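Task: fold both queries, return tokens.
Query 1:
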Amino acid sequence: MQVIYSGDRMTASEMITHAIEDRGVYKKDVASKMGWSAANLTNKLRRNTITADEFIKLADILGFNVQMANKGIELPVKKKPGRIGTRVVATVGDEQFDNGSATQICHKTNSVSIDKELYLSDKGKFFIVTHTSDGITNVEKCTKGQARILYTQCSEDEIVKDFPE
């Protein structure tokens, strides 16, 4: 089931309040899962002082994912030199990968409109960002051996940085 809470004037507190009502749960139970008192949750909702992190956690407790949907407005996108796609931040397992702060090693475009970018995170983990022609982006972590295989498949003009040893 998909539920969309939206509107130009709906606050985060209103969305959480509606979600609590729709789920039929008690505020005290939600507050407890956040490590808060019921009064603390009530005050945050009344004052609309819920942070973005708190909003995401509350939505998760209530069984919702938070998504931003493209409204069809095209904005200029700043790309890092060599980057094929836009910035991607994703959590894979318990690790977060961000191609905006990672070092790009190479990028590979194949004949079926699939672009792969190899990155090394600031924590020394390799990951691949895949972009398809139909707009799907995927992030996967990989081993150094898998990273080396992709690196060896890249042509000279697709290599951004030497492979780290």
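Query 1 returned. Query 2:
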Amino acid sequence: MKKVQVTTLAMLFASAAVISSCGGNEKQSETEANEAPAVEEAAPAAEEPSAAAEEEVTDDAAIAAGEAAFTTKCVACHQWETKGVGPAMSGVTERRTDEWIIKMITNPTEMLANDEDAKALLAEYNNVPMANLGISEEEANSILAYFKSKDAQ
């Protein structure tokens, strides 16, 4: 019984972390808040990753933008060296292709439904799915640049 309670509490904590990490630090105006739909719609399907995703990114601005995006949107579930609600990111660019990383960041729902590696990660992390935060391909490429710069260190 105690194990069930601990598991339930862990799932509630994980869900709260995912929910609290959704969105950025942007403030909505009163007009925008009033116009927001009552029910959240599914994020649009992600675009196919561009050839730029496979190129080495050494642009300091892209790396800085990726670090900022990761810190704002991802650290509730992912740390660099340690596992959290989701896997540790250290070495991710050595384990996965650029295309896979971009697809997972931009459209985790589709990846969790169709990709065997993503399904295995879902099972490994207590079936807590990665939230679709509506990250654009450009922002995902910046996050990838940040990952590559960290993995190169």
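Both queries returned. Flag for query 2: The mean pLDDT is 75.
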